Amino acid sequence: MRMRILGIVLSTIAVTAMVPTDGAYAVDIITSTDAPDLTQVRAKIKAKDFAGALEDLQPLLQSHQHADVYNLMGFSLRKTGDYKQAYTFYRKALDFDPEHKGALEYLGELYVETGQIEKAKENVVLLRKLCPKGCEELEDLEAAITHASHKTN
């Protein structure tokens, strides 16, 4: 019993430690309880080891059809520069959960990175509906759009 409690505490600490302070590499919020354990994947993403994250995610694609898995796959692919595959995985995440805030944010950021600002703004509209009082995903996407707009002006 004591070991189980220690494991839960350590898992909680590990997840808490992965919360980004600058939002630039925000790792999505877990959206359901049937998600596989993505702690190691999130740690690798936080460390910017996107190739390692992709390696860990590959077997999960076979065993778990879950929006969080697809979203993190898309995120890692985008960060390695594979925008086409990243788009495919973000869409798959949204097929499973159309209100997945992380996938909406990250897909919007992909749009920003590929110069599709109007499409990114469509994701802002969706996030505003999901987060009427605001949320990290909405703030991060709005910041990405603002930053991109300042670069072109």
Commentary on this structure:
The chain has 153 residues and is mainly alpha-helical. The protein has one domain (2-152): Serine Threonine Protein Phosphatase 5, Tetratricopeptide repeat, CATH 1.25.40.10. It has eight helices and no strands. The protein is globular.
Report the radius of gyration as a whole number of Å: 16 Å
CATH topology: Serine Threonine Protein Phosphatase 5, Tetratricopeptide repeat
Biggest beta sheet summary = none
Low-pLDDT residue spans:
1-26
Helix and strand composition category: mainly alpha
CATH superfamily: Tetratricopeptide repeat domain
- The average pLDDT score comes to 83
Q: What is the distance, rounded to the nearest whole angstrom, between the alpha carbons of the first and last residues?
A: 60 Å
- The SSE string, one letter per element, is HHHHHHHH
In DSSP terms, counting alpha (H) and pi (I) runs of 4 or more, how many helices? 8
DSSP E strands, number: 0
Main CATH class: Mainly Alpha
